[in-house]
Aspartate aminotransferase (Trichoplusia ni), 429 residues
Amino acid sequence: MTFGLINLGAQVLTRCHLDVMNHALRAKSMWWGHVPAGAPDVILGIRDTYLKDPHPKKVNLGVGAYRDDDGKPFVLPSVRRAEEIIYEKCLNHEYGPISGEPPFTEACAKLAFGEKSKPLCEKTNATVQALSGTGALRLGFEFISRHYNKTREIWLPKPTWFNHPQICDAVCLPMKSYRYFAPKTLGFDVDGAVEDLSKAPEGAIVLLHACAHNPTGIDPKKHEWERLSKVIKERKLFPFFDMAYQGFATGDVDNDALAVRMFVDHGHEVMVAQSFAKNMGLYGERVGALTILCGDPETTARVMSQLKVIIRTIYSNPSINGSRIVQEILTSPELMKQWLGDVKSMADRVISMRKMLRSAIEAAGNKRTWNHITDQIGMFCYTGLNPEQVERLIKEFHIYLTKDGRISVAGITTKNVGYVAECMHKVTS
């Protein structure tokens, strides 16, 4: 009896041991067990922490999307009207062209370069629809990695949008940086940028933020753009513009395209990545465009053919819903006028929040200079706060922002601007 119980217990233990071993073996992937965890997205991490915070005065200044004065997502009235028109047309859902519908790509090019732009008149622009700004950048860098026959080295401003170097890494393009942000003045280091770019090897690619520089909110002035154009031309460098905020920076789409159009007038053959996430609020639609200026129609045709090859092997065809909205707005005089008013209203709200924030901090008796808040432009502001001050804002005051002190001005409202200013005053006094 005792032996039988012992034998039964041993069988149970053996069975349990085997079950544990089998579970462990099942838990470890045969093929993917070696894969390390990827780094979490900084902005999404801030959002998740913010959402879990029960504090009644919490503020999210890390969000990279426009919010109205109630802190809510905003759908542009012109976009709503375009959606209604598209619905009434009862369109089908067939595949779109690999490069996007021609009326869409033509409208995108006109918005970027101007209706009477020489390359557009001469049809030397290869313009294709892309998956918003990120997709346009990836497509452009992919094209460079396959077909660029000069110095395949990307020169990025320091600092730049965190995704720029990740995209370059993904297509194995080496990177260098040129000075952009001046910590002492909290402004643009034009002398440093020109000095660095004058040392770049001939043929290197220079990434430029067309307007509303992310993350600093600092844009070169017109005469500074002219200096950049001159050194890039003299060094025979290739300019690649990331234009994610046209219209959103100053409220004027032509003014925000000043740098791109100036470079074209100076004879540069540029590459431009466009996004309609910010200026039309089409974040989830993922609609953008990539343009490469080619110099002559024959080269343009060959470049277009190779862009289509890349697109076909990645996602085959672009989505049609977002591009239909953009096309409807950009090709209808009535909707275009309404959209220009919508985008100006968003830009004006952000500008007014900058003024209110600066005024409130100064009114609190803060001894620092805060003119950089209103000197900067666009959605983002480099506050000049250090990591320790940022940590205090998050832990003590429940105001969420990135460690480098960057805030999204769109997250500030008339209801919370006083609280944000008071807390910024406390951590900097």
Q: What stands out?
A: The domain at 42-74+348-428 is CATH 3.90.1150.10 (Aspartate Aminotransferase, domain 1).
